[in-house]
Each structure stands twice: as structure tokens, then as C-alpha cells.
Design a protein that fits this description.
This protein is α/β, with parallel strands linked by helices. Helix content is 39%, strand content 18%. It has helices spanning 19-23, 32-47, 64-68, 75-99, 121-129, 147-157, 191-196, 204-212, 227-234; strands at 12-17, 51-56, 104-108, 117-118, 133-137, 162-167, 172-173, 185-186, 188-189, 217-221, 240-242. The structure holds uridine-5'-diphosphate.
Length: 244
């Protein structure tokens, strides 16, 4: 089979940010300073010859489950609203990256061609090979999934070496370290352990997909400057990794 990576030795990674990360201190919307910070971190990766794809959640705008809570909006519609929210975030991130001179394309799993390209696997690969950052928007395009699953799916499709789950903490803990002082960081974790012990590195569908395809998941702190680069280029600061 033709090697679509053309034997590139470059690191190819997918970074997953939650939508909540974009809202910063607020509970809703997009904080420009955060957008700027993330764009600069991504630019560092690109400048160091790392091939980067991004998935951003939509939780800073709306989530299907919460939208459906009032009993008016059905879950499926709520999920489509959530997917649209991820498109808003992706377009914002595209602007921020372009502001810093990074070549970038948004590809949506749902066709919205006035706003961005539609996800086409081979086209995504060509963008990556040309050194562009590709932001995958609208999740998987299906309700009842999450952007963690979308990120895992796309990472596998584009043959990424690793998925970086960028969070507010530096790794996976047995309980929320922001709430519990006695939370213990789990340094190396198998997929089975994460599933069995219900450790929510990502949702179970995403972890199962990563397991089936041997995709390592590194959980890292996105708010530590240069952390993404240190992890990928220098293998520094990898505290929690989920793999076999
Ligand atoms: N969503 C969906 N299918 C997908 C991805 C996302 O239906 O493949 C919807 C779902 O309602 C979800 C919302 O989009 O709650 C936003 O995504 P997510 O909750 O994963 O965002 P995050 O928590 O990462 O900000």
C-alpha cells in the first residue's frame, strides 16, 4: 500500500484542546489572550518542523447534553449545535494562527463550504505534507460522540504518532487535583487500566479506539509555556502517557 506519509521522518501530532480552555477565566466564549497563547504554542511546533493537526471542543459555547437538559431541545439537535460550536472555535483558531503567519486550513466533518473546507482525508494529508496546520472541526459529524473521539479518530486516520490532550493539569490524576490535595498522578497507564478504573483521560469510546489502533495519548498542561514543544521535541515533561 502506498505510504501516504511519504516516509517523512517528521513528527506528526494531533493536539486536542477542550472548548472550555478557550474561555479562560470566563465560563463562556473565546478569550483572545488564550487564543493568542495557543496560537504561539502551535507556531513553536510548526517552526520546529513538527506536523500539527488540531481538534478543539465546543464546551465553551454549548454541549449537547446540557442543551437537552431543559427538555425542549432534543439531544440529537443539541449535539449538532455542539458540533457547530466547534466550527466557531476552529475558525477563531484559524484566524489566530494566520495572525502569527502559520499556514492553516479548517476542515469540517459537516459540509459548510462557505466557511471552511469539508473533511477529505487525502486533502488533509496534502495540507499536512505542505506544512499546513489542519484544524478538524465539527467533531465526527455524528451526534452522541465527543470531540475526544473525533480527535482520536482523526489522529488515527492521518497516522499521527501521538495525541496530545492539552489540559489545565500536567497529567492524569486519580481524582481532580484542583479539588483534592491528595490526588495522585498516574505516570504510565494502560488503555485497559484507564477503562477499567474509569479514569477519564478521555471518554471510553476514544480510549477504546486509541487502544485498538495503538495510539499513545499524552496528557499535558497547555498553560505551561513551551510544554508542547518540550514534550514532542525533547521528550521533557511527559508525566502521564496512556499506551499498551
Ligand atoms: N459533538 C457531537 N459529535 C462529535 C463531537 C462533538 O455530537 O463527534 C457535540 C456534543 O454535543 C459535544 C459538543 O459537540 O458535547 C462539544 O464537544 P465536546 O463536549 O467534546 O467539547 P469539549 O468538552 O472538548 O469542549
Amino acid at each position: 500500500m502506498q505510504n501516504l506519509r511519504q516516509n517523512t521522518r517528521k513528527n506528526r501530532i494531533l493536539v486536542k484542546f477542550s472548548g472550555e480552555a478557550l474561555s479562560g477565566k470566563n465560563i463562556f466564549g473565546i478569550e483572545i489572550d488564550i487564543l493568542r497563547y495557543i496560537a504561539e504554542e502551535i507556531k513553536l511546533l510548526v517552526d520546529n518542523d513538527i506536523e500539527v493537526c488540531i481538534v478543539i471542543g465546543g464546551g465553551n459555547i454549548i454541549r449537547g447534553v446540557s442543551a437537552a437538559e431543559g427538555g425542549i431541545i432534543r439531544r440529537t439537535s443539541g449535539d449538532y449545535m455542539g458540533m457547530l460550536a466547534t466550527v466557531i472555535n476552529a475558525v477563531a483558531m484559524q484566524e489566530a494562527l494566520e495572525h502569527f503567519g502559520v499556514d492553516v486550513r479548517v476542515q469540517s466533518a459537516i459540509e459548510i463550504q462557505e466557511i471552511c473546507e469539508t473533511y477529505i482525508y487525502r486533502r488533509a494529508i496534502r495540507h499536512i505534507q505542505k506544512g499546513r496546520v489542519v484544524i478538524f472541526a465539527a467533531g465526527t459529524g455524528n451526534p452522541f460522540f465527543t470531540t475526544d473521539t473525533a480527535a482520536t479518530l482523526r489522529a488515527i486516520e492521518i497516522n499521527a504518532d501521538v495525541i496530545l490532550k492539552a489540559t489545565k493539569v500536567d497529567g492524569v490524576y486519580n481524582k481532580d487535583p484542583n479539588k483534592f490535595d491528595d490526588a495522585i498522578r498516574l505516570d504510565k497507564l494502560s488503555y485497559d487500566q484507564a477503562l477499567k478504573d474509569n479514569i477519564k483521560v478521555m471518554d471510553d469510546t476514544a480510549i477504546a479506539l486509541a487502544k485498538d489502533n495503538n495510539l499513545p495519548i499524552i496528557v499535558c498542561n497547555m498553560f505551561k509555556p513551551r510544554n508542547l514543544l518540550d514534550i514532542i521535541k525533547y521528550q521533557k515533561g511527559v508525566y502521564s502517557i496512556v499506551k499498551n
